[in-house]
Amino acid sequence: MNTKVKIAGVEWKNPITTASGTFGSGLEYSEFLDLSNLGAVTTKGVAAIPWEGNPTPRIAETSSGMLNAIGLQNPGVDVFLERDYPFLKQFDTNIIVNVVGKTTEDYCKVVERLANAQVDMLEINISCPNVKEGGIAFGQNCTSVEAITKEIKKYAKQPIIMKLSPNVTDITEMARAAEAGGADALSLINTITGMKIDVHKRGFVLANKTGGLSGPAVKPVAVRMVYQVANAVNIPIIGMGGIMTGEDALEFIMAGATTVAVGTANFINPTATMDILNEIKDYMRKYNINDIQELIGCVK
């Protein structure tokens, strides 16, 4: 049984990675599973300088998922390279560093700092507000998506994955813009903007008022968007959004994703990634699928 896949020339032993922000850099989770068994580990967002994040409370549970308004808190690229990178290098897995910024220059600084590190891929989170354009996220404007992708490609030594925001009218326009800018792959979806109100306190549950909705509630939206994008571009896709089981992951793969990222499920079950991989293998055995390639994009 072959579970190997390739994205932008990078071979993964299986199609499972972690969704950024749900796995740190794997340190805590390494107590529960061998990170070498993952196709890749995707890190929490890394900025040029330390970010404090948003005030608390910044996490809220919903009936079918969770809201987060962490604000991409992180210690910055220098700490990542000194602390997290050496830890991850111990494992036989691909390293994907998620990159965040407030300006195009911010992103490029991080990408440049990572150019000589043995990092396999870079995932660019373009759901960040563009402070020079009035705060609208980079990923919500086609022109911005293409421009930032082109600029980052000038500095990147590794393949670039552009992480798309679902908070747009037409996801395929953003996907085509990233492809036109030179993206090597796409990941989608990022969280959907949501809100929760405490009716007893008559106030917002999150200090930030709004947060990103993830978990099972977003999965049907995510599968639909992955399918649309897979039929609009010619670059590979990492699918994510509410994957809790092997069958969930297979929906994304059949819709056209080459690999998948597990996010919110990690908070509930620290071995979720491995459980999902084993369920995919069980499915392949049940239906006599010898190669996972047979399933990628099989639903037309």
Structure description:
With 300 residues, this protein is an alpha/beta fold. Helices cover 29% and strands 20% of the residues. The protein has a single domain (5-53, 71-193, 212-294), classed as Aldolase class I (TIM Barrel, Alpha-Beta Barrel). The strands form four sheets. An eight-stranded parallel β-sheet has the order 3-16-15-10-9-8-7-4. Strands 5-6-14-11 form a four-stranded antiparallel β-sheet, with no helix packed on it. A hairpin with a 2-residue loop joins strand 5 (59-62) and strand 6 (65-68). Helix 3 (142-155) runs parallel beside helix 4 and helix 5 packs parallel to helix 6 (246-255). The longest helix is centred in the C-terminal third of the chain and has 15 residues, at 272-286. It is globular, with a radius of gyration of 18 Å. The two termini are 24 Å apart.
How are the elements arranged and paired?
Layout: E1 5-7, E2 10-12, E3 16-18, E4 40-42, E5 59-62, E6 65-68, H1 77-88, E7 94-99, H2 104-113, E8 121-125, H3 142-155, E9 160-163, H4 171-180, E10 185-188, E11 192-195, E12 197-198, E13 203-204, E14 210-214, H5 219-230, E15 237-240, H6 246-255, E16 259-262, H7 265-268, H8 272-286
Parallel strand pairs: 3-16, 4-7, 7-8, 8-9, 9-10, 10-15, 15-16
Antiparallel strand pairs: 1-2, 5-6, 6-14, 11-14, 12-13
Features:
300 residues, eight-stranded parallel sheet, four-stranded antiparallel sheet, globular
